[in-house]
From TrEMBL:
Residues 1-18 form the signal peptide. The keyword NAD does not apply. This is Malate dehydrogenase. The keyword S-adenosyl-L-methionine does not apply. Keywords: Signal.
């Protein structure tokens, strides 16, 4: 396993604190992590942070031929609430390095939390991919992380976040992306970490309380080459932090 302190601290800039705004904390507002290079456009000064979630699931791809380039077809993930353990927010908050290491630790410590066909290592059941709602417990020495919701793509291919534990919902489209740091966790298949994303409201009227989402601190999730994966659907495990805003 990769050292959670040395690699992740090198990959991500020190997290700073912005002026207090309305949000989930009383005196501090968490600031988005930095790649140490190119960064995503941040939220507006008026944006309200509603939740930080730790996501664990799969990125799905298809290959039309062995010499083709994999095509992304969606993702599935279970989300866990990590808002209160952000550094400095509460008595149960983690240190910066411990917080930033959570995606790496989760990816390697736990199996993908989806209903899987018996003949598959990572793919999810197509009719019922999500298991019963369960909190994430016993991750290293960290506290329990409450179940927060699900991430999936709807029948039209639109990315969705259903935070049913809090009533928040987001229907989004990609508004920006930057590559993950070169030394980010490459994942269990050693394919590399998926890009960091800025996701904006889709305009379909399906969002509730959230209209801006960021995917950051990613681990794993990039596709295998079609020559390796073969034709058909391939599913690659990943973890990431998702930051949810009302902007």
């Amino acid at each position: 396993m990769v050292s959670t302190t040395s690699l992740l601290l090198a990959a991500f800039a020190t997290i700073a604190y912005a002026a207090p705004t309305k949000g989930p904390c009383k005196s501090l507002t968490p600031t988005l992590p930095s790649t140490g290079g190119d960064n995503l456009q941040g939220p507006s000064p008026a944006a309200r942070l509603k939740k930080i979630a730790l996501g664990h699931g799969i990125q799905n791809y298809t290959c039309s031929a062995s010499d083709a380039t994999p095509s992304a077809t969606g993702a599935l993930a279970v989300l866990y609430d990590a808002t209160t353990v952000y550094p400095g927010l509460s008595k149960t908050a983690l240190s910066t390095d411990a917080f930033n290491s959570l995606p790496h630790l989760l990816l390697w410590d736990r199996p993908v939390p989806l209903n899987r066909p018996s003949n598959s290592s990572y793919s999810a059941d197509t009719t019922s991919p999500f298991p019963a709602h369960n909190d994430l417990k016993g991750l290293a020495d960290y506290p329990s992380f409450k179940y927060a919701g699900h991430h999936f793509f709807d029948s039209t291919g639109t990315p969705m976040f259903d935070l049913d534990a809090s009533g928040l919902k987001a229907s989004v489209v990609k508004g920006g992306n930057v590559n993950a740091p070169q030394d980010a966790d490459k994942g269990v298949l050693a394919t590399g970490a998926v890009a960091w994303l800025r996701l904006t409201d889709s305009g379909k009227g399906q969002s509730k309380g959230v209209n801006l989402v960021y995917r950051v601190l990613t681990a794993g999730g990039n596709a295998e080459g079609c020559a390796v994966a073969g034709t058909g659907v391939q599913s690659v495990p990943y973890t990431a932090f998702y930051w949810f805003y009302e902007d």
